[in-house]
Amino acid sequence: MPKRGGKMAFVATNDLSQIQAVKLDESIITLRGVSKQFRDEYAVRDVTFEVPKGSIFGFIGPSGSGKTTTVRLITGIYLPSEGEVKVMGRNPLEFSQTMRENIGYMPQLFVLYPNLTVWENLNFAASIYGMGFFRGKRLRKVLDFVELTEHRDKITRDTSGGMQRRLSLAATLVHDPDLIFLDEPTAGIDPVLRRKFWDHFKELQKQGNTLFITTQYVNEATFCDWVGVMANGKLLVVDTPDGLRHRAFGGEVVNLQTSAPLDYRAEQELYDLQFVRGQITRTGPASYHIVVDEASTAMPALMEWTKEKDITIEAIEEFLPPFDDVFVELIKDETNAP
To answer: Environment class of residue 296 by beta-carbon count within 10 Å: exposed (0-12), middle (13-18) or buried (19+)?
Structure first.
């Protein structure tokens, strides 16, 4: 079983010499300067990153940002125009049959047979991977995992969209792969089922799998160990969810509520405090979001400062900006570019 991987600090950049990465565990996927060009257009340009073994790696970005193209490059469906792709230490185009059987891929679109039953579709998927006649135990286990056991004899076209997504996931997992690619697996399903899918993904990680997940739902980034942000075919950054918040706003955010609005002089003094990073946003008559180096050390210092200034605090706490706001902040320069 692969061990849970690893710690990495990484900044996406077009200059390979500037990449600063600390790898404390084995990487299962490595891209170096990868581009994909279709005629005169680049779908992906100069993408470099690594995925630690045993992690959940989220790939977020708007539609058309290059997420699916990147997945197809990693899985060997596309040949890169430039750069190098390594998966499990090998070029995907050189994979043996055994290595391919160690990878699962769930596409965006439903590609199974609508006229077959749920069980027949899953059995067919198992046969593609060369699973033997005694595969019934594995099929039952996977159906149970995605909670489709009671629907196994239903004709697939008569099942709901959510059931079909679960069947797609089951077909991806039927051969028990170590490395799993999921291309927008939660697209078009309701929030309850979406959360259940993520419960499945977390359970797969506990079993030792590595998951590479693309999504347009940027708040799903909070469920990942590492997140890559794509826009216009460029990889803007790779970091942890907390690291992305820090990058987006220049630090951590403290929510401060006082009994009365701060006067001009107090606001200016607040800006000048050593631990304040220069961004203070008034969110209400006497409420402020203050960007600081570290919230855990800034809050006691803020309490001491307000005491000295005879300012009454109604509430003080760390504020975690919604990931929609984080994402918009991270890609704003790219989306505003001519």
So the answer is: exposed
